[in-house]
Amino acid sequence: MKAIAWARANLFNGVWNTILTLVAGYLIARGAWMAIDWGLIHAAWSAPDGRACRAITNDEGACWAFIEQWYRFILFGRFPPGEQWRALIVVILFIGMVVVSCDRRLWRSAWPITAIWVVGLIVSFILMHGGVLGLPVVTTDLWNGLPLTLFLSVIALAGAFPLAILLALGRRSDYPIIRALSVGYIELVRGVPIISILFMASVMLPLFLPAGVNIDNLIRALVGLMLFYAAALAEVIRGGLQAIPTGQYEAADVLGLSFGQKTRLVVLPQALSITIPPLVNTFIAAFKDTTLVTIVGLFDLLTTASNSITDPQWRGFYVEAYVFVAAIYFVFCFSMSRYSRSLERSTER
Amino acid sequence: MTGTDPMISLSNVEKRYGAFQVLKGVSLEVARGEKVVVCGPSGSGKSTMIRCINRLERHEAGRITVDGIELTDDPKQIEAIRRDVGMVFQQFNLFPHLTVLQNLTLAPVKVRGMKERDARDLAMQLLETVRIPEQADKYPGQLSGGQQQRVAIARALAMKPKAMLFDEPTSALDPEMIKEVLDAMVALAGQGMTMIVVTHEMGFARQVADKIVFMDQGQIVEEATPTDFFSKPKSERAQLFLSNILGH
Ligand SMILES: Nc1ncnc2c1ncn2[C@@H]1O[C@H](COP(=O)(O)OP(=O)(O)OP(=O)(O)O)[C@@H](O)[C@H]1O
Ligand SMILES: [Mg+2]
């Protein structure tokens, strides 16, 4: 009853609205039907190879048998199959650490979060790399797929965030040298495509290092991403800092708070809470941008997916592969977006 | 230090913004427990003068001392003076992300090193004296202007200052809220606090001030007791100002 009243008030109030509702409704229904038809009704769920699968679907439905055969490769790439449980634990650990860090009750002091991350990262590294506790060594070039994507984006963002706060504060510093350095860094890095930063980190950095010193390609990409994200986040945070009225600084000053206390207890909490939406936006964009590490030879989730469809037995199931990967990305990005909404609501007052 | 030393003393204080000289040699002595009301036309430098006392503005010439400590560029001196001088602003400037109680306990805990518990007890006691203990757990945005300003007074008092500066504490308030803030200030004056109050509330000045200071164009033009100031202002500028502000 309520639904009918709502629809009447919002969807069918007037001739044009009614027409618009009907047209939009038709398009949505048709799209949904095509998706169901392709993804469920005419889909094939198991088949020995690509040719057999196509015979079942008659090219009118999805060949999920491909995902069934290849999901482990897409998720973990060339990580040795017998050791993939280690990578799976790391994925769960990373998601767990991020989810736990999202709990506002933990933010009162820096220690719990720092401890969780230090321990979590050490455990993750041991699990991924092995070489101790009887775990066979897995070199970093075999860290592929979802663990790599999470590893790069989460660590790069976690490292970039504090750096971005320092840069944003530096940009507003009273000391000309600090200000010039911050502005120079931010503008330089922001003015360059992320791909060229990755190239520089991966190709040019070794040229500057003394012979014999070799930094792992993964670390180089990680540092490149971190430096890039720091500049992007710094600009977002600067926007928040600018919105804090001078009266807040003065009130903190006359109470005798030191510069550090004023920044930590008065300015940053306010600046960060008003920048939650653009911050999360940047996080989501950054998470998707990690896929660019493919150009320096790293196999992230998207790269493993596009490699999977080159198998002679299963050639050309790119729609299935990309739908699968897109669904994974969607789950992560949508969660971030929902979390941002809930944070926004809880800081509104 | 003897009890007869002034609490706050300014001598020949000068301050300029670029080519514009805001303070042209201001001298003022405020004894312990004395209440000084500062008035004068807009732009005469009242705010600038009291903001110099706790270094929100830097004075360029002259001497400022608070309780015997001279205000110099030395951060230690500045820190010491700020700990002893409370300030209340026209715009309240409460911390919107903290509750009323947290606004009051922040500085005592972080700056004075007071125990959380003691700070909270002190804060509740101060909220009682400004008569809003029931608002302790609200956020500033949920309070009326008058309530916010009373919280701001309590916040400054929580640092146990030796002197309090007020810069037009009631100018941003709706008329019906002015009285509750002035009442809190009158009560504070009754406890012997040293106060410098920039205000155009002449009723308050009559009731509380030991001394009225009239400023114009960066100078103190007249210093007098309220009775003298209101009945027979010496300078023409003060006469004009009074007739404007009292509306006849
Ligand atoms: N940051 C600044 N830069 C330049 N000029 C300033 C600055 N702050 C104040 N002034 C000028 O200094 C003069 C004195 O200002 P001040 O705020 O001390 O006056 P006031 O007596 O408090 O006036 P009001 O009653 O309007 O508050 C004004 O002419 C003002 O324009
Ligand atoms: Mg003023």
Secondary structure layout plus pairing:
The complex is a heterodimer of chains A (349) and B (248).
Chain A (H helix, E strand, L loop, with lengths): L1 H9 L4 H27 L8 H8 L6 H13 L7 H18 L8 H20 L15 H27 L4 H15 L3 H15 L8 H26 L3 H9 L4 H16 L1 H14 L11 H8 L9 H30 L2
Helix pairs in contact in A: 4-7, 4-14, 4-15, 5-6, 5-7, 7-8, 7-10, 7-13, 7-14, 8-10, 9-10, 10-12, 10-13, 11-12, 13-15, 14-15
Chain B lengths: L5 E12 L2 E12 L3 E5 L6 H8 L7 E6 L2 E2 L4 H10 E4 L11 H11 L5 H14 L15 H13 L5 E5 L7 H16 L3 E5 L3 H7 L2 E6 L2 E6 L1 H6 L4 H11 L2
Parallel strand pairs in B: 3-8, 3-9, 6-7, 7-8
Antiparallel strand pairs in B: 1-2, 1-4, 4-5, 9-10
Helix pairs in contact in B: 3-4, 3-5, 4-5, 5-6
The structure holds adenosine-5'-triphosphate and magnesium ion (MG).
Adenosine-5'-triphosphate binds next to helix 1 of chain B.
Question: What is this entry, summarized?
Answer:
Chain A has helices at residues 2-10, 15-41, 50-57, 64-76, 84-101, 110-129, 145-171, 176-190, 194-208, 217-242, 246-254, 259-274, 276-289, 301-308, 318-347. Chain A has 349 residues and is mostly helical. Chain B starts with 5 loop residues before the first strand and ends with a helix.
Task: Give an account of the 3D structure.
With 349 residues, chain A is mostly helical. Helix content of chain A is 73%, strand content 0%. Chain A starts with a helix and ends with a helix. The model of chain A has no long low-confidence stretch (mean pLDDT 87). Chain B has helices at residues 46-53, 75-84, 100-110, 116-129, 145-157, 175-190, 202-208, 226-231, 236-246, and strands at 6-17, 20-31, 35-39, 61-66, 69-70, 85-88, 163-167, 194-198, 211-216, 219-224. In chain B, helix 3 packs parallel to helix 5 and helix 4 crosses helix 5 (145-157). The longest helix of chain B is centred in the C-terminal third of the chain and has 16 residues, at 175-190. Chain B is globular. At the A-B interface, helix 11 and helix 12 of A face helix 2, strand 6 and helix 3 of B. Bound molecules: adenosine-5'-triphosphate and magnesium ion. The site of magnesium ion has 4 residues of chain B, from helix 1.
